[in-house]
Recover the amino acids of this structure.
């Protein structure tokens, strides 16, 4: 697959191995990778790492501070906060990833379509992108949730739609650049149709750009989806989603700050580690951004 | 003048498309508006019919669309399903707390963003750069609802340094920091890269060669040019301010437009949602226009380029 081997004029070939190596030597990216791995492993192996079920109440005294039995304390219903924070990664992280995938796929298709077609289609499409940028994204997300209804899947769609213009704009620009390249002309001379050129030649060519963009947007997506859940528009209690946990913990933080501190810390660490990785990835794959 | 006129005319399609979008979106919201308005109260078919007529819902969709656009222009967007008050009045009533919060957040965010960005930009790759950018990273990664709760817990309930409810400046401190931190991260990064770019220019070398001090070079020569890209983004920051307002008002239980928007969506108060979105986009567009004009004042080259 072309995504694994990315042609980079003048810098040799960037392979996945090389990208990984240059991520590891950067302290920020290394810290990001370690934290993110820990959160992902915690979410996947949660059933092994904790004896409790995330819905189980009265696993200890209610609103208890951290103890040896309840590592991070318990919430109002005596549910184990450590367990809920671990399981929370399953919801918060996958919702963020789903959002970015949704936006990346629709945004790129749109960007490729208007960039490749050009002319009036491009002019109109670019205008639509401008209008979407002009719409404050939280207003757009809230509006979409108003239409679709409250819930995690709808939050993915709502935040995903609000992020489409980021991908559409960059992909359109990249397509405009790639369109003029010799290999596109060559494959057209060989009789390839528009669709084939777009999917087989242009799409793989802009893949590195997309990976960087997706990583850079992932932190924001995790944050936005958690924010909507915090506002009561996404996951509903007792789902152990980090934003929802913070929302339920708000009233009881006076009695036990742990209900607010740890879900928030997990969310913050997740977003920060993704941002650290994204920044480094951008420097590697887009040398102009490096200082 | 023609430049400004062209800019203003360019806004018309954007407004039209956005308002059309708002109309369409709310048109397809499931549920009969009359039912939403009655909120479960029993009513005879006669009453329902009268309400439908009063709200203009008996007219075909294109008539309602044209009348919606007309009313949007006049600033008369009907009355709330919930309170029966004119929505424009409801919005005006909640405007002040949100403006105060936005202004406070804006001041904190810009101050912090400029300080961090300049410190990082004038000494790239120094410890000053690394630590400033670390703070900026915290700014973009901290969930503002969590920051708000931590601030309330530490400075409000535990240390009791500042009030967390009430009116006036003291009660505005923690919410402003919450919104400001959220704004500052992106701004600091932008100012840093902008300063880095400007510091490499020939005229900075000339200024240095003249024997000017570092302070004068940075403050008088570099800053003015380095601030152009961040200023263009001030318009975009408006979107972040709205996000900040919705979340911060929820965390601090403050009244304001963010709360009004959230409640109107949860209650499916369609006229109120419609009005809020219409005004928010209008404000956004006017703000961007002002930023463009400001841009021309900071950098006279831009106006000349546009005019030629």
């Amino acid at each position: 697959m072309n995504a694994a081997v990315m042609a980079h004029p003048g810098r040799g070939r960037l392979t996945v191995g090389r990208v990984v190596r240059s991520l590891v030597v950067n302290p920020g990216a290394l810290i990001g990778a370690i934290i993110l791995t820990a959160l992902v492993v915690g979410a996947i192996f949660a059933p092994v790492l904790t004896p409790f079920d995330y819905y189980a109440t009265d696993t200890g005294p209610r609103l208890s501070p951290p103890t040896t039995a309840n590592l991070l304390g318990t919430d109002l219903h005596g549910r184990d906060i450590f367990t809920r924070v671990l399981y929370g990664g399953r919801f918060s992280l996958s919702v963020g990833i789903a959002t970015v995938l949704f936006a990346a796929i629709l945004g790129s298709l749109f960007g490729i379509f208007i960039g490749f077609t050009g002319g009036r289609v491009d002019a109109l499409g670019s205008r639509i992108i401008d209008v979407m940028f002009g719409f404050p994204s939280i207003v757009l997300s809230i509006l979409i949730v108003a239409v679709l209804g409250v819930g995690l899947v709808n939050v993915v769609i709502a935040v995903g739609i609000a992020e489409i213009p980021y991908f559409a704009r960059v992909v359109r620009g990249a397509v405009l650049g790639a369109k003029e390249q010799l290999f596109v002309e060559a494959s057209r001379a060989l009789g390839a149709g528009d669709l084939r050129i777009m999917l087989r030649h242009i799409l793989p060519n802009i893949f590195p750009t997309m990976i960087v963009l997706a990583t850079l947007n992932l932190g924001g997506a995790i944050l936005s989806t958690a924010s909507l859940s915090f506002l009561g528009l996404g996951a509903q209690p007792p789902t152990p989603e980090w934003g929802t946990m913070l929302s339920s913990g708000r009233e009881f933080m006076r009695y036990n700050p742990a209900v607010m501190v740890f879900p928030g810390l997990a969310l913050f660490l997740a977003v920060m580690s993704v941002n650290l990785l994204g920044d480094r990835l951008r420097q590697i794959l887009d040398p102009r951004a490096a200082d | 003048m023609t430049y400004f006129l062209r800019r203003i005319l360019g806004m018309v399609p954007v407004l039209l498309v956005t308002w059309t979008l708002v109309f369409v979106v709310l048109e397809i919201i499931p549920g009969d508006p009359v039912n939403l308005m009655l909120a479960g109260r029993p009513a005879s078919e006669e009453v329902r019919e009268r309400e439908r007529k009063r709200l203009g819902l008996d007219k075909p969709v294109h008539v309602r669309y044209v009348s919606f656009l007309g009313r949007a222009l006049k600033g008369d967007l009907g009355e709330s399903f919930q309170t029966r008050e004119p929505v424009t009045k409801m919005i005006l009533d909640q405007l002040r707390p949100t403006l105060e919060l936005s202004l406070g957040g804006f001041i904190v965010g810009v101050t912090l963003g400029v300080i961090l960005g300049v410190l990082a930009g004038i000494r790239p790759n120094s410890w000053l750069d690394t630590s400033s950018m670390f703070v900026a990273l915290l700014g973009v990664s901290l969930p503002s609802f969590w920051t708000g709760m931590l601030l309330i817990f530490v400075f409000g309930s535990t240390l009791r340094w500042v009030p967390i409810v009430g009116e006036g400046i003291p009660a505005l401190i923690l919410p402003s920091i919450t919104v400001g931190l959220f704004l500052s991260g992106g701004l600091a990064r932008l100012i840093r890269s902008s300063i880095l770019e400007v510091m490499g220019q020939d005229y900075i070398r000339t200024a240095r060669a003249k024997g000017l001090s570092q302070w004068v070079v940075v403050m008088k020569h570099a800053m003015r040019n380095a601030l152009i890209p961040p200023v263009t983004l001030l318009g975009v920051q408006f979107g972040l301010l709205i996000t900040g307002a919705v979340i911060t008002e929820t965390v601090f239980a403050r009244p304001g437009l963010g709360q009004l928007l959230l409640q109107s969506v949860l209650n499916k108060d369609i006229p109120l949602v419609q009005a809020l979105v219409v005004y928010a986009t209008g404000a956004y567009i006017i703000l961007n226009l002002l930023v463009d004009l400001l841009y021309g004042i900071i950098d006279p080259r831009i106006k000349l380029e546009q005019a030629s």
